[in-house]
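Structural prep section.
Before we set up the soaks we want a predicted structure of the protein with magnesium ion in place, mainly to decide which crystallisation condition to try first. Input record follows.
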Amino acid sequence: MIKLENISFKYPNSKTNVLSDLNMTINDNQIIAIVGKNGSGKSTTAKLLSGVLKLKKGKITIDDTDISKFKKSKDLQNNVGIVFQNPENQIIFNNIYDEISFPIKNLEKSEIDKRVDNALGEVEMSSLKDKELYSLSLGQKQRIVIAEVLARKPKYIILDEPTTMIDSFGKEKIYEIIKNLKNQGYTIILVTNIADEILLADKVFILDSGKITHEIDKSDFISNADIFKEYGLEIPTLLHILVELKKSGVDIDLKDLNVSEFVNYLKGKLLNEKLN
Ligand SMILES: Nc1ncnc2c1ncn2[C@@H]1O[C@H](COP(=O)(O)OP(=O)(O)OP(=O)(O)O)[C@@H](O)[C@H]1O
Ligand SMILES: [Mg+2]
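Run finished without errors. Recording the C-alpha cells verbatim:
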C-alpha cells in the first residue's frame, strides 16, 4: 500500500504551492488512474512517488516504509518504477539488451539475462529483441521502457500519460500489458487524460489545483460520470451509453466490461427478444 499524507510541494522557482495538503491511499493490486486538468499536479505527484523529485513537506510510505528512509533514489525506484510520456526521452542505448539491463547491471549476468528475458516476454517484445531500438515504433519503444522498469522488479508501476504519443494499435497493446500486469499482482498508477483509459482503472483519483477532490470506485463511475466532465475529462463512450441506459431504467454493471463485451451483451438481448 502507498500512502501520501499531507503532501505540499513548491518548485524552487514558483511562488505558490503546486500540491497542497494532498492525501491519497493506493491499495495493492489495483489499477488506479490519476486524472485532472493540465497543470493540476499529476506529474509532480508521480515524480514525488518515484523519487524523481524530492519530498519536502508531508510523508509518503510504501508498505509501511517511509520513503525518506531509502538511502538512494535507486532503492526507491526498485520499488516504484516510472514510465513517462515520450519513450525517446527515457532510452539511452540502441541495443535492447543494453537498454533493459542498464539499471540492473550490478546483478549477476545469469540473473540479468533472466530478468531481461522475462521483461521482454511481459511486454510481448521477445521476437523483436535483436532489433535496433531506433528502428522500432513509438509504441514498441514504450514497451521496451516498460520492460526496463519491470526488470527492476518493482511492485508499483507509475505510467505518466504513457500512450499520448502512440497510435491506436500501440495504445491497445499497452492496455493489454497493463491489464496483464495487474493480473500478476502489480499495482499500476496510470496518470491519464484519455477518456477511455479511465475504464481500465479500479479507482480514479481526481486532482485539481494540487488537491485530491474526488476518489471514485469503478462501481460508482456510472453515477458519477458528470464529475469527470466537470474536471475536464471526456466521458468514455461506453460509460456515456451506460449512463443513458441507466436514465431510461436499464441498469448494467460496468465491471470489466469493454465495448466488444457490451456488443455481445446487446446481441444476446436482441436475439432473446427475437426468439420470444
Ligand atoms: N520544473 C518546474 N518548475 C516550475 N514549475 C513547474 C515545473 N514543473 C511543473 N511546474 C508547474 O507545476 C504545476 C503542476 O504541473 P504538473 O506537471 O505536475 O501538472 P500535470 O497535471 O501533470 O499537467 P499536464 O496535464 O499538463 O501534464 C503547473 O502549474 C506547472 O506549470
Ligand atoms: Mg503531466
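Observations: Residues 11, 13-14, 18, 36, 38-44, 193 surround adenosine-5'-triphosphate (ligand 1) (CB under 6 Å).
Flagged for discussion at group meeting.
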